Amino acid sequence: MSLNNLGLSAGQERLYRYLLRNPRPDLGTARADLAMPELPVVLAELREAGLVDDTLTAIPPAVAVDLLVRRRLDQTRRQLTELSLAWDVLTELSEEHRSGRPVQMVEHVPDGPAVTRRLRALMADDPGEFMHLKIRPRNDNSHFDNKPFARLLAGGLRSRTLFSADALTDPHQEPYARYWHGLGDLHRVTTEPIRHLAIVNRSVAFVQADPAQPNAGGLQIRQPGLVAMLADVFDGMWARARDLDDLPLSPLEQQVLRVLAEHSTDETAARALNISVRKFRAHVADLMARLGAATRFQAALRAKERGWL
Description:
Layout: H1 10-21, H2 27-34, H3 39-49, H4 61-99, E1 106-109, H5 112-125, E2 129-134, H6 146-154, E3 158-164, H7 173-183, E4 185-190, E5 197-200, E6 204-208, E7 218-221, H8 224-240, E8 242-243, H9 251-262, H10 266-273, H11 277-291, H12 296-305
Parallel strand pairs: 2-3, 3-4
Antiparallel strand pairs: 1-7, 2-5, 4-8, 5-6, 6-7
Helix pairs in contact: 1-3, 9-10, 9-11, 10-11, 11-12
Pfam families: GerE
GO molecular function, one term: DNA binding
Protein name: HTH luxR-type domain-containing protein
């Protein structure tokens, strides 16, 4: 076998073999023996490759072959990495063919409405899976049209939304999350720090271009390795998150549940909380819906089962 298969030139191999047979030779003699006028250049190449030491002694064959094999493997890995980029190019070319416009692996999208349009178009083309990480379920400034999304859910879109537990300080957030949960956009709550993230079909991801600048738009990411990593992060957070029915009671809900058990009428319970009867009954109705109870008695039983009473 020629060492050329391991990356050495013919001249380098001839000189290495000569130095194995003739340790520390006279360079003039070596040049003449090998008929190699370019010997100093070839010798410098062998020294740079680590096959000859400073005393012009060739390193042992086992060490030399191991070094050359490792170097060739590294080169092969780099070549395979370069070849794998062809799949990224295929993804990019396919999207350009589909959309009729240039596509980049990472592209800046100027604003929220533009991001929404991209999301809407992607899900309309292939309503497979949608993963959404957001600070709060309901955003009054959102540009996302709910009706088309509801139709996608009805058509079989698999959607999961993960939002921050801090959002529950707003009393409007949980009912909104439960409404969409009931339509098929499954919601869970996390206490982990989060940033806005949306992933469509595990192939395209959107993140904020600059978390410190809400109006900076977003980044659309199509690079498969990066999208796969973001999807794995979402899956891990989803597995650690809590279902809506497992949420702890808020301080107000705890008070409502307590006075509901202690007082026989709504009027006395409402006075104990210093709120109107109408407001008290609204809180009770919310608790019953959360417990899935048809009666107050059933709500009390289920609250005890959960350890809330």
